[in-house]
């Protein structure tokens, strides 16, 4: 069983969006997937309750019990667990980072969001865990490639010493529309640009976790 933790101290950076979309994409790849909702706001849980399909599974938990939840998930035969966390939740974020095989930190590319990454990055350095930033809600690429703000964000992130995933997710209405009735973009608009971005991110993650 492999575990992906998604943490970012900043609210609204895309933790739940990323967790839901990667979970659904992993189900499509044939894996038994469990989403763990560590956020008392319960956004992933609310999405899951609107969903008609059974998979991925979902369980709500708190940081203190995350280890037990992962043990049970392993015993139940889950192959991938994705953990969605709350903003401003250091203790739960620390347990998540400690227990996960891979940690993603989503951030929007704007300067105020990048500034806020310092607290998440600091937390990871403190516990000695590696993580990767995933740029989210970026202006879509143009014919000449990645927009300038995305390139600038990549450069700014070098200062934090955290690698940045080559895949950037764009700001696309499909990412929020799909969630309304409990779907993800790969189900809502499977041939669309948002789905292609999730496919690319999943390819990167699956090669890392399941080489
Ligand atoms: N790539 C995107 N394109 C369009 N909308 C997006 C994108 N990413 C996130 N959003 C929207 O931005 C809002 C915040 O996203 P999300 O809930 O995933 O962030 P979060 O980090 O989980 O927030 P919180 O810290 O409150 O848990 C949501 O309304 C979501 O639909
Ligand atoms: Mg969330």
CATH structural architecture: 3-Layer(aba) Sandwich
Distance between the ends: 13 Å
- Amount of beta strand: 5-15%
Which bin fits the share of residues in helices?
40-55%
Specify the CATH class. Answer: Alpha Beta
Number of strands: 6
| Count of helical regions | 9
Main beta-sheet annotation: 6 strands, parallel
Fourth-tier CATH superfamily name: P-loop containing nucleotide triphosphate hydrolases
CATH topology: Rossmann fold
Radius of gyration computed on alpha carbons:
16 Å
Strand order of the largest sheet: 3-2-4-1-5-6
Low-confidence segments, ≥5 residues, pLDDT <50? none
Query: Could you say which structural class the secondary elements and strand pairing correspond to?
Result: alpha/beta
Ions and ligands: adenosine-5'-triphosphate, magnesium ion
Could you report the average pLDDT, rounded to the nearest whole number? 96
Helices and strands, in order, run as EHEHEHEHEHEHHHH
């Amino acid at each position: 069983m492999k575990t992906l933790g998604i943490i970012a101290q900043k609210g609204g950076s895309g933790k739940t969006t990323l967790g839901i979309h990667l979970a659904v994409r992993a189900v499509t790849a044939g894996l038994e997937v469990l989403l763990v909702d560590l956020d008392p706001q319960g956004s992933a849980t609310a999405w899951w309750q609107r969903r008609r399909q059974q998979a991925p599974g979902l369980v709500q938990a708190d940081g203190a019990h995350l280890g037990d939840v992962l043990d049970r998930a392993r015993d139940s035969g889950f192959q991938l667990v994705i953990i969605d966390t709350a903003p401003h939740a250091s203790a739960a974020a620390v347990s998540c980072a400690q227990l996960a095989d891979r940690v993603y930190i989503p951030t929007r590319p704007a300067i105020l969001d990048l500034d806020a990454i310092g607290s998440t990055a600091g937390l990871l350095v403190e516990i000695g865990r590696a993580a990767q930033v995933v740029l989210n809600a970026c202006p879509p690429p143009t014919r000449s490639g990645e927009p300038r703000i995305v390139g600038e964000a990549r450069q700014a992130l070098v200062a934090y010493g955290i690698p940045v995933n080559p895949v950037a997710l764009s700001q696309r209405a499909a990412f929020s529309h799909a969630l309304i009735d409990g779907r993800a973009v790969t189900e809502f608009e499977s041939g669309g640009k948002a789905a292609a971005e999730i496919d690319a991110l999943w390819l990167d993650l699956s090669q890392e976790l399941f080489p």
